[in-house]
Amino acid sequence: MKLNSLLLIFSLGVLPFVHSCRSPESDDQLKSKIEEALADNQGIAVDVEAGNVTLNGQLGSDSLKQVIEEKTKLAGGESIKSVHNNIMVNLPEPEDAREKYHEMVEGAVDSTLTRDVNRVLKEFPTITAQVREGIIIATGNIEKSQLDSLKKRLEHIKPKGLDMKGVTSR
Q1: What is the DSSP secondary structure assignment for residue 160, as one 8-state letter?
Q2: Per-residue pLDDT averaged across 34-49, rounded?
Q3: DSSP per-residue string spanning 62-111
Q4: pLDDT, tens digit, for every residue of 62-102?
């Protein structure tokens, strides 16, 4: 009876210790299972340490980020202690986003562009500009060395057109 009690106490004391000591091999196996489950999602990095899974990478939507986390949990099952989802969501802006936005808000096209143009022109005090139907019309005098910079900055705000015929360089 004493021997059985001793064995029971020993087992209860050792089992939690054995369970908490995970071998690197089991982490490697868990990582392989998860990577296999996520094979169709390129760019997602999986790290596993002591049953704690960390996901890193970039995706285009929050819903896809959640799908990845669910796939991870299903693949790992009870072997996973926790999941740290560090995936960044980057929503790419379509090429024509400004134009579509302006189409939706009609008259706000020029006011939005005017605001952006005024921000650019703070660095070029000798230049003035008007915006008409999405086209920036710039006038004034500028140093030759600054002309290219001005043009690039104005093009960066993606107007429908850029008219710099009224800008002279010295």
Answers
A1: S
A2: 89
A3: HHHHHHHHHHHHHHHGGG-SEEEE-PEE--PPPTTHHHHHHHHHTTHHHH
A4: 888 888 999 999 999 999 999 999 998 886 555 555 555 55
The backbone torsions φ and ψ at residue 26, rounded to the nearest 5 degrees and listed phi first, read -70, -35
Instruction: With beta carbons less than 8 A apart as the criterion, state whether 22 and 50 touch.
Output: yes
Question: 86 is written with which tokens?
Answer: 């560090």
**C-alpha angle 160-162-165 in degrees, rounded to nearest 5:** 155
Q: Which two tokens stand for residue 170?
A: 């010295």
Residue among 65, 64, 45 at smallest CA distance from 55: 45
Enumerate helices (H) and strands (E) in the chain, giving the number of each. Answer: 6, 8
- Which 3 state secondary structure label does DSSP give 129? strand
Neighbours of 90 (CB within 10 A): 10
Question: pLDDT digit string (tens) for 99-154?
Answer: 555 554 545 567 778 889 999 999 999 999 999 888 999 999 999 999 999 999 99
User: In the block, which residue shows the tokens 């285009």?
Assistant: 60
